[in-house]
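Limitations

Structures in this collection are predictions, not experimental determinations, and the ligand pose is part of the prediction. Treat each record accordingly. The example that follows, with zinc ion as the small molecule, is included so readers can see exactly what is and is not provided: the inputs are given verbatim, and the output is the predicted complex.
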Amino acid sequence: MQVIILGSGSPLPDPTRAGPSTLVRTTAGDLLFDCGRGVLMRAAAVGSGAGAFRALFLTHLHSDHITDLNDVFTTRWVMSFVPNPLPVFGPTGTAALVQATEAMLEPDIGYRIAHHADLQWRPTATVTEVDRGVVFDEGGVRVTAASTDHAPVRPTVGFRIDEGGRSVVIAGDTVPCAGLDELCAGADVLVHTVVRRDLIEQIGLPRLTDVLDYHSSVSDAAQTAHRAGMGTLVLTHPVPTPAPGTEQEWLDQATACFKGSVVLATDLLTLGVTG
Ligand SMILES: [Zn+2]
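Predicted complex:
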């Protein structure tokens, strides 16, 4: 199994960080977790793409995690030579989101069907709304969901991917919670979105300070990894964007409460997770 951070960014536009998105390459295919800004550009850099995704998993419906759903949906359709429905797993509300995305693309769908004689089907998705338990089990790869806590955003889920005795958890946006602890127990790698409480408090902008109550700080994420006895913590979606030269501060805050290895993600960071 391989974990590739396609987008290590946040809602804040950044010239080097695409929006939140993680690709997990498994023997069952490429599993995509969230689809933020620029996801297909980054997927192209690792030889994957809309048509290659075995499934898309959404942690929640905040805009930065789903901005490019329309791109994945359309590009998969336009670049397939046979109907290729996109399997989507996400919290309650995902089916309505996919329907609304399709409705938004209605003019484009009409243009392309009218113009291409060999494209006579519409883009489709098969949506499964999930809350907890095993949601995908194929070819020795199992994906398990559990509820997380990103209130007032509800519902939200995290995912754990198991293959060959190794496991990766995609936390999404959440504060520490029992559901995430459950996913992390005995797992190897935790990919967690984080914010820096100290810097955000120092900046003192109410719009930014608001994000503190529903995200994990670096030390919150590190404590979650520590409680579960995990081996590796990947800090992603850092807010505010780390200033060049300050990367070590982020790592230090994590290693103060977690003894495993800690990585501050950049786009296309790749981790091999094998027995
Ligand atoms: Zn969020």
